[in-house]
Structure of Carboxymethylenebutenolidase:
Amino acid sequence: MSGMYRDIALRRDRGLAAEDDRQPLAESRVPITVIEPDGFARGGIVVLHESHEFADSLLELMGSLAADSWIVVAPNLFHRNGADRETVFGDHLFADFDACYDWLTGRGVHGDCIGVLGFDTAGTAALLVATSRPIGAAVSVAAPGITEPLTDLADALVRAAPRLQAPWLGLYGADDPATPTAHVEQLRDAAARAAVATLVVTYPGLHHRADHPGLEPEPGSESDVLVDAQTRIFGWFDSHLR
């Protein structure tokens, strides 16, 4: 993996790194994983993920983003209440994102050069972040909760999308039962009402995400879909984080 990989903890109130990043974390600290580029950093990407551990495919993507000169910061969104997935949303989500944002800006990264990337329910969170935070771009992959909220702490995406404040890219599988095509089309229409650039891409035959084991597109197209999706993610950040 290219770049420097490390785990640290941030104070939620000021975004300061803890002196000892291996000690148990108090409530006031947000554990994060950082991958920094070997050389000049042209911006930062906050990666939201719904798992307690990083999948190999996600770590590979984070390393590729770092190799493309982005500082990659991934907060542990579940550090408060164990397996309670509702901690992804609401005030806790924004507090954790803000800690990462402050950490990046404290290292000289301008707000319009900071992006957010999320997968599955964390993709839903990434869109919600882009409705209320001064970032440069956002990408959601297979984000559910399109027409109905996932929790009372999150708005439905069709209601949130018109409020987007940052350019947003959504990537979906056309045959994903968690995000029916009719719902994705409603989201496309809702996002088009935002005052920023938006793009929703669906992949025929894809049942979820191209990098998700056991939920793959039609045989023979897996690699093409994965390459196209990652190319679009990199291109979106390249185009809008300036």
Notes: The longest helix spans residues 222-240. Residues 9-27, 213-217 have pLDDT under 50 and may be disordered.
